[in-house]
Amino acid sequence: MTETARGRRLGSHLIADGFVVACVLGWWLTSLRLPKFVLPDPFSVGATTVRLFVDPGFLVHTGASALRVAAAVVLSVVLGLALALLAERVPVLSHAVHRRLLPVLNSFPSVGWAILATVWFQPTSAAVIFVQVMILTPFCLINAAQGLRELDREVVEMARSFTRSRARVVLHVILPLLMPYLMAAVRIAYGIGWKIALVAELFGADSGLGYLMLKAQVMSDAAMVFATCFAIVIIFIAGEKLVIDPITRRIRAH
Prior knowledge:
- This protein is mainly α and 254 residues long.
- It folds into two domains: 1-33; 38-253, MetI-like fold, CATH 1.10.3720.
- Helices cover 85% and strands 0% of the residues.
- It is built from ten helices and no strands.
- It has helices at residues 3-31, 42-54, 56-89, 94-107, 110-120, 125-149, 153-162, 166-204, 209-218, 222-253.
- The two termini are 26 Å apart.
- The relative contact order is 0.12.
């Protein structure tokens, strides 16, 4: 790396970090003039955020939200891939999947799914995961379908010439070729999953960060509202950096 590139990189980091410091400073100065139930100071919010990760009573809720999002992402990718494969392998169903089912799933309001979940399910993790899966599946379906359309047909045909087992072709050839598209679906679903996690939990859960936020609203605990939001940001970044990015790099290396 040249000195010019290093200087630009250092300057970029200084600007980014300086912006964050300026925002926190502005937040603190503003909080001095407002009551805590309107705008708590950043130190109170920081302490509350730490409690969400270290206090066993709060850690249960943080872990519940994280596990629900992870489960919803996995189920959505599997369901989206299954629908894409169904439309690809059974051409007569392609129109039904892409022209009928996909537009409905894409446009159906997330709040509508959340309300329906409260009607159909008890306040459990199943209700929250259901809402998330219904919202995330179309994104995964689109990515999987795009991957199937761009498959190297010659490689697939060569694999079929070596074995009559469709399962082996799918497992050893098609899925590896689809992995970049599936990882893109995972990345999108993971980000959107956290965006809708609180909404789903607000409507139909007796645990999780959304449940804590609802309680905080009732008690006018603005610090907890901020803390739950920052906890999601922390978990999201950790999941991307520690799980999704390493897997993506490993797939690209192969």
